[in-house]
Amino acid sequence: MENTRRMKLQPQDRDFHSGAVKLEERIDNAVESTYSSGGQIVKEREKAQKKDKRVYEAVKRAFDVIGSAIGLLVLLPVFALISVVIWAGHTGKHVIYKQRRIGRGGKEIYIYKFRSMVDNADDVEKWLNPKQLRQYYSEFKVEDDPRVTKIGKFLRRTGLDELPQILNILRGELSIVGPRPIQESELKFYGDSKDTLLSVRPGLTGYWQVYCGDGVSYKNGERQRMELNYIENRSLWWDIKICFATFGALIRKAKRGQ
Fold this sequence. Notes:
Elements: H1 2-74, H2 76-88, E1 96-102, E2 108-114, H3 124-127, H4 130-139, H5 150-158, H6 165-170, E3 175-177, H7 194-197, E4 203-205, H8 207-211, H9 222-233, H10 236-256
Parallel strand pairs: 3-4
Antiparallel strand pairs: 1-2
C-alpha cells in the first residue's frame, strides 16, 4: 500500500519540484535584474560626476587665466613700486625670490615671491637658533623669523609678497585657489594621502591658508585634514567663498601685525 501511495504522489512531487525551480529562476532573474539596474545607476552616477569634474576643472582654469592676466595688467604699477622699495633697501641683490616646490602630479615647480628675507635665507643653520630650527623643521615656518627684512614684514602682513605668483597661475603651475604649494620634505606628513594632495594644482590662496587657527599644524594632523578636505569636496562655489574670505584673513593678519 505504501509503495502504491508513493507512486501516486510522484507526479505531484515532480510538479511541485518543477514549480519550485521556476520560482527560484524567477527570483534569481529578479535579483540579477536588480543588481544590474543598481550597477547601471552607479555607473551613470560616476559618469555624471566625472563630467561635472571636467566642467569644474575647465571653468576653474579659464577663471585662473582670465583673473591672472587682468591682475597682472592692473598691478604692474604696484609691482614696479615694490621692486624699487626692495632694491632701495640694499638688503640683497635680488628683488624676486624663486623657491622650489612640488606641483600637480609631483612635478617640480618654482614659485615666485617678492623677496622678504635676506639673500642667503636658505642657510637656516646660520640664522636660526635651536628652538627656531625645531619649529622650522616641524612646521616649515618660524615665529619672529630673524631672516625677514623690515620691508619684508610689511609685504608678508599684507600678502603683497606673493603677488608674483600671478605668473605661476598664468603658466598653469598654480591655481588661484588650492592647497598650499609644499616642499618635497613636507610630503612625509601626508603618508598614503600624498597622491591625493598632488592630484590638483596648488593655490595662491586656499582653505588652510584662510581658515587655519593657532592650533592647526602638521604635528596634530589638522593641516593635512583641512587640505585633503578641500580636495575631496572642492567646487566653484567653495572657491569663490575662499577668495572672498582671503581678504578678511589678510585684514586680520595685518591687524595682528603678523
